[in-house]
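4.2 Preliminary Data

To establish feasibility before requesting continued support, the project team ran the inverse folding procedure on a target of 151 residues. The structure was first converted into the token representation described in Section 3, and no sequence information of any kind was made available to the design step. The complete token record follows.
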């Protein structure tokens, strides 16, 4: 059965999935800004490095590190915690989805940029792990205060 047949109702199809998990290190300190509505947004570059075997036609034997850079965007309370606690070089696990947008470059050419919009950022650097508990406590304390104020 072809993909077209599956989409026309001949077969049950899977739901689409846009999910990415990255473990890497921050390339710069996170940069925070706020939207007009006061929602925090943080951006930072994330480097992921993998070991790659060199091709047979290369003179050197062995392997080389290949680094890929990702643009990370974090929103809301998660963004505030990233801006407050993360620094350049620290390790994180980012869970999110990939989004793209088109723009016109300085040369007038249409380009596409890809970003990872984080749903969850886990701090992995050893000396920062304890901050997760502090950040979670601050979040639940502010949530409790908001509930008391509204009730």
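Position-by-position output of the design step:
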């Amino acid at each position: 059965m072809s993909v077209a047949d599956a989409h026309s109702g001949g077969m049950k199809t899977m739901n689409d999935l846009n999910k990415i998990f990255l473990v890497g290190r921050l390339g710069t300190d996170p940069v925070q800004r706020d939207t007009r509505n006061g929602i925090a947004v943080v951006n930072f570059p994330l480097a992921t490095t993998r070991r790659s075997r060199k091709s047979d036609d290369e003179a050197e034997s062995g392997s080389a590190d290949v680094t890929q850079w990702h643009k990370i965007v974090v929103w809301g309370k998660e963004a505030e915690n990233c801006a407050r606690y993360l620094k350049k070089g620290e390790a994180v696990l980012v869970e999110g989805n990939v989004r793209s947008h088109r723009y016109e470059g300085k040369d007038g050419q249409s380009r596409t940029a890809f970003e990872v919009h984080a749903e969850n950022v886990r701090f992995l650097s050893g000396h920062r792990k304890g901050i997760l508990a502090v950040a979670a406590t601050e979040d639940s304390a502010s949530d409790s205060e908001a509930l008391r104020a509204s009730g």
